[in-house]
Amino acid sequence: MLRLTLKSPLKSRLLSSLRHPKPSFSTANLAVDHPEPPPPTTTTTRAAVSRIFNFFLQNHCTKGSAKLLRGDPCFKILIFELNSSEIEDIVEKLSFENSESALEFFFLLRSDYGFNPSRVSHIAVAHVLAKKQRFRALKIHLQHLVQQEGFGSAHSICELLLIRFQKWDSNHVVWDVLVSAYSHCQMVDDALFVLQR
Predict the structure, then answer these.
(1) Helix ranges, the chain (H)
(2) Cα-flanking dihedrals φ and ψ of residue 188, to 5°?
(3) How many CA atoms lie within 13 A of 159 on its CB side?
(4) DSSP-H helix ranges across 26-72
(5) Is 18 helix (H, G, I), strand (E, B) or coil?
(6) Which runs of E-coded beta strand occur in the chain?
(7) Of 97, 170, 116, 168, nearest in space to 106 by CA
(8) Over residues 17-31, mean pLDDT
(9) Quick check: 62 pLDDT over 70?
(10) What 8-state DSSP symbol labels residue 19?
(11) How far apart are CA 182 and CA 139, in angstroms?
(12) With contact defined as beta carbons under 8 Å apart, do 124 and 91 qualify?
């Protein structure tokens, strides 16, 4: 059997510390030796939100145009600086300013960057699809949301629709298709709950 012997300063220090352990341990020393990285500043994330929003707004994205951003490393860095509420803000703002851009941004994040957008983003996109009368896409989109949220999710989704989206023009269409989505996914209790609202 061949035995490797490593002669390095790191190995000898490691063995020495195992043989002669230090009598005390201090978390303060650990913090000095290994400081935590600073959290991203709000100005950094605000700048990322602004740049992404302006890109989609200025370029007047058409269906499929966001695919150009798939391999862009700068865009990827901007995306990963965002948190869920910032993504919601971008989707909602784009929904009013340029609805096609809102769809492109949402599906780019979900499909290409592996994000799992929040309920708010899902519902905002549902309203855009309803307003554009893309009913088949709306049904598929809401079925995806319903399957993701699971049984018993109707209450929280209805509350969200009532509180945050009540004044949106296409809200009644989203309610109708939501019932259909729950029914299609065989979540009868949830479908009945939505119907009662």
Answers:
(1) 9-19, 27-33, 42-58, 73-80, 84-97, 99-107, 119-131, 135-149, 154-164, 171-184, 188-196
(2) -65, -45
(3) 5
(4) 27-33, 42-58
(5) helix
(6) none
(7) 116
(8) 41
(9) no
(10) H
(11) 10
(12) yes
